[in-house]
Design a protein that fits this description.
By secondary structure, this protein is α/β, with parallel strands linked by helices. It has nine helices and nine strands. Helix 1 packs antiparallel against helix 8 and helix 6 crosses helix 9.
């Protein structure tokens, strides 16, 4: 797995993934303001529409969930850095995996595969042109100078979306047998996940036993039913991660910025963060969607009304995920994620 240890050129920087602090942002061709804004809006709309279509299909789990006992368990990662993608990108990559039936969670750009002695396979006839690769995005800072009323120059800085096309390991020929997933043992319903137990304990959150699962902001504590009342081990841990995500919201922790957003928006953040965290710790997502089903209509309406909504939710979910992981790991600098 020598590719997973390499850091170097700009081309090797995976987008929307955790990256070293001294890694430079990719150099991009500057666009005029209107063109830049138009491309950003188009990318947001395209990704939002993909997620809306998946949620409306009724044929699969939400795109932030992976089915049980899948061989591509774990977060979607970049070949070169080995680091997981963040922000909205895990959702986009999971949608592509569901659509094409990929079994690997490893991705890279065309050039990165070539650098690793791989060869991206030719597009199958049943795949439309331009749809063989998967477009992911990250936010990049842009500076624009303007002249003020007194004749001096000021520089405004803002963020835009940049995109790259990546390909899954299943789309590539090359010497990657050791990276391909093997058959996994079926997950035992109440298998104990030590990494998850360690994280929950390390947060030192006030978790009390009760007949429902919730976070109580007024007392800053979590209520969790006994473990044996859950349908499975993964269902228990996912619920705990969901409530721990809500626990990160207060001002003295992450101070979520959710002005004007309702309760369902907070549930979407917690739902996505819990699934991201489960993937990081190797816990299969529960296939029970009864908890999120009640909010599905609200989520869909929100996404249809605002093509930035899923990006805000995924960004906050990634921040909560990293904050909780920091209790058991040395925090890594995170590339600004879309």
């Amino acid at each position: 797995m020598k590719w997973l240890a390499h850091e170097g050129s700009i081309e090797s920087l995976p987008i929307g993934v955790r990256s070293p602090a001294n890694t430079r942002l990719p150099v991009v061709n500057p666009l005029k303001g209107d063109d830049m804004a138009g491309k950003t809006e188009q990318l947001r709309t395209e990704i939002t529409n993909q997620i809306i279509q998946a949620l409306e299909s009724g044929n699969s789990l939400p795109p932030w969930r992976k089915p049980w006992n899948t061989t591509n368990s774990g977060p979607h990662r970049n070949l070169i850095s080995g680091r997981p993608y963040s922000g909205v990108n895990p959702l986009v990559l999971q949608l592509a995996s569901q659509r094409h039936g990929f079994t690997s969670s490893i991705w890279a750009t065309f050039k990165q595969w070539n650098q690793a002695n791989g060869h991206v396979k030719r597009r199958p006839d049943n795949v439309k042109p331009g749809k063989w690769g998967t477009t992911i995005c990250f936010t990049a800072p842009v500076a624009k100078k303007r002249r003020t009323d007194d004749g001096s120059e000021e520089e405004d800085k803002y963020w835009i979306l940049k995109s790259y096309t990546v390909f899954n390991l299943d789309q590539v020929d090359g010497p990657f047998d050791q990276l391909r997933p093997s058959e996994t043992e079926p997950t035992k319903l109440f298998e104990k996940f030590e990494a998850a137990d360690e994280l929950i304990a390390a947060t030192e959150a006030d978790i009390r036993t009760g007949d429902r699962a919730c976070y109580v902001p007024a007392g800053d504590y979590i209520i969790m039913p006994p473990k044996e009342s859950f349908h499975s081990g993964p269902d228990y841990y996912e619920t705990a991660f969901h409530e721990l995500t809500h626990w990160t919201e207060p001002e003295h922790r992450l101070n979520w910025d959710r002005k004007g957003e309702g309760y369902a928006a907070g549930e979407l953040i917690a739902e996505i963060s819990a699934c991201y965290l489960a993937a990081e710790l190797g816990i299969p997502n529960s296939d029970r969607i009864d908890k999120s089903g009640a909010y599905l209509k609200s989520w869909l309406q929100n996404l249809k009304n605002d093509n930035r909504a899923i990006f805000r939710a995924c960004s906050q979910a990634s921040k909560a995920n990293d904050f909780l992981l920091s209790f058991v790991r040395t925090p890594e600098p995170v590339e600004a994620a879309a």
